[in-house]
Amino acid sequence: MLLDLCRRVFILTLVWLIPQAGFAATYLPKDSRLQSAIKDLKSLELDLNGNGKPDYYREFDDNGRLRFIRYDYNEDGKPEFQVELDVNGFKKEELVDRNYDGKIDYKVICKQK
Length: 113
Known about the structure:
Helix content is 27%, strand content 27%. It is α+β, with helices and mostly antiparallel strands.
């Protein structure tokens, strides 16, 4: 029980830290190992509920900026919700599969003022 709680806290901490990758890759010293590790990170898949299938996905561009976030709500290993971010980190669009058939049911286009 306690181990499971610690595991979830660690994973949620990672989920919070990974979006900061672009910031860290930009402002860390050029010879930093952390900078190169962050820039080499292309995607992150997490199994938050422990069923053996990833249910939380993040994808990064070549500069280490977060570009896509995907969630799997029904625990089948396929994401039902996706957010695409522009190069500035703002929402560009959302894609949603509400009935879990693997097809997008609606798309929300987000525009910045």
